[in-house]
Every structure is written in C-alpha cells, then in structure tokens.
Amino acid sequence: MIDLRSDTVTKPTKAMREAMFHAEVGDDVYKEDPTVTRLEQMAAEKLGKESALFVTSGTQGNQIAVLTHCLPGNEVLLEKDSHIFYYEGGAISAFAGVQTRTISGNKGAMEPSEVQSAIRGDDIHEPETGLICLENTHNRAGGAIVSVENMRQIYEVAQKANVPVHLDGARLFNAAVAKGCAITEFTKYTSSVQICLSKGLGAPIGSIIAGDQTFIEKARKWRKRLGGGLRQVGTIAAPGIIALSDMVDRLAMDHELAKKLANGIRNISGFEVVNDVDTNIVLIDVKGKQLTSAKVIDQLKKRGILAVSFGPTVIRLTTHYDVKNEEIDQTLAVFNQL
Ligand SMILES: *Cc1c(COP(=O)(O)O)cnc(C)c1O
C-alpha cells in the first residue's frame, strides 16, 4: 500500500528504535527522566522559548495551552477551519469551558484587522477574549504557510489588547523548511506553541508545547490533571530527540514529492489541485470526474493507494518519510487510469 493518508503514518526509523532501547530513564512526574529533560531543553532552545513540555499528542498540547491561558467563560478567537475548532471534538469548550469565535481566513491566514475588531471591550455584557489561536502550516488550507508578517501583525494587535497568542504549529517545521528560515522567525510572534514530533518528523508518539517558564509550570499541572503525567517516558522521548536533530531538513524532500504529485495531477483532466502546495499536502477536487471523494478513495484503495476525504468532492494526499519517489510515479499512473 502507498499510504498518503497522513504524515502521522510514518514508522519510527532504525535509529529511533535503537535510541528507545538504549534510553536512560527515570520517573518523569518527579522530573527525573534525563531523556525527557534533554528533549524538552533541546525543543525550548530550537523554538526560542524559555521552557518546553513533552505531551502525548498535538491535541493534548493544544488543550493544555487553552486550559493554561484561559478561564471558563473566556472567548477564544480562531480560524474557522482550524484544527482546534474543527478536529478536536469541541474539547476546548468541554474542558476549558471557553466559547469560540471563528474568523474566516484566506489560505489559513486571518486578517489582522478582523482579529482586532473581534477582540472584546469592557462592556459587562461581553465575554473576555482569553486567547487567539493561530495554525501554521494550516491543515485544512492544504498545508498552507501563514506568513511571518501576518503573524507579526496579529501578535502586535494581541499585545496591545493584552491577549496571549497560541500557535498550533503541528507542522511548523514544514513551514520553516519550505521558507528556508529559522523556526524562531515564526515562534517569536507567539506566547506559546505546539509542535508535533509524530508527523513529518517521524517519531512514533508525542508533541512539544513551549512558552515562558510560568506558562510551562502551569501547563505541567494541567498535563497531570489530564492524566498526561507519565513515568519512564524517556523510552518515547528518545525518538523525539532524533526527530528534532535529524529529521527536520529532510522535510524538503516531502515538499518536492508533493509538488511532483500536484504537477502530475494538474495534467490529468477531471482532477483539480485546489491548494498552492506550499508544503507536503495536496488537495484534489474530483468533481470534474463526476465522482465523489468517497468513490475516488474507494477506487484508489483497490489499486493500492490510501487517501482521506476533505469534503464531498475533495481528497487529501500527504507526502512523508515513508513515501518514495517511485511511489509518486505509481500514484500518478493510477490517477491516469481512474
Ligand atoms: C495533527 C494535528 C493536530 C493534532 O495532533 P495529534 O497528535 O493528532 O493529536 C493539531 N493541529 C494540527 C494543525 C494538526 O495537523
């Protein structure tokens, strides 16, 4: 099978499995796991933040960030197709007791002036704006890169209003590699950030949240409350260290393969690539073939290719570490037969 459903499907590399085997461990709830501590220090440094925390998943990281920044009854501003709003089961309302206020973005980027006018004032009728959430790269916008300039402007608006900014940077390393800049260019315009180790970076489990020391201390308590305080977890932090040190630069190859795939698809009539393919995600509208996404996914699967639905006529294909150049050729050959 050529598995293009997500970059989450990557299997740990040999080096990761060996690192897991040899990892030095301790009880991380007592902060005694040297491997976790090393991963957190390394992540904080790379992300340009004072401190970092290893969490079980991207969703848990985002939830801890919202719980740490907000009080019940606060309002959170976020993009209408953002992962936190669209794909986290309404968790920020269920757990943090906040209400959401969505803004429509352009290729994942919210207009700073719209964010500004959505921030609440002093009127006692209104909720307090507790947090602004950004997403980069933006998943539902097809791995679109939100520009540093857009983030800077929103951060400025937020600072004036004394509202923190959380970045869901599940695939932020993809944005930095594609732009050829340091990841800190993006993170400097945030109060906190979440990055996934288990997507394009290939680790089997885990995410990092980073921010200032006070934020991470409070976040650590929320992680414990949510049952995310783990014990000899150096065994799974060890591959995270390899993810951050060895797996970042190679994301460029995933982006190249996504571009190759998109260029091939553009030459096949009836299929339309609907995103800019900034990074490793290709969104294809199949309505020109008079087909639904479900039907195309079914036909692809019968021919050995896995994809996911992104709407009634749109499918998503994602490149990653376990996808080879020849497999993109094979995928294009299959699309030509459909
Ligand atoms: C995958 C993803 C998450 C959630 O990560 P999990 O580890 O699957 O919980 C959050 N935000 C974005 C943008 C994602 O793509």
Automatic annotation (TrEMBL):
GO terms for molecular function: L-allo-threonine aldolase activity. Its EC number is 4.1.2.48. Keywords: Lyase, Pyridoxal phosphate. Residues 3-287 form the Aromatic amino acid beta-eliminating lyase/threonine aldolase domain. The modification N6-(pyridoxal phosphate)lysine is found at K199. Its cofactor is pyridoxal 5'-phosphate. Signal peptide: none annotated. CDD domains: TA_like (cd06502). NCBIfam families: GntG_guanitoxin (NF041359), PRK10534.1 (NF007825). This is Low-specificity L-threonine aldolase. It comes from Halalkalibacter suaedae.
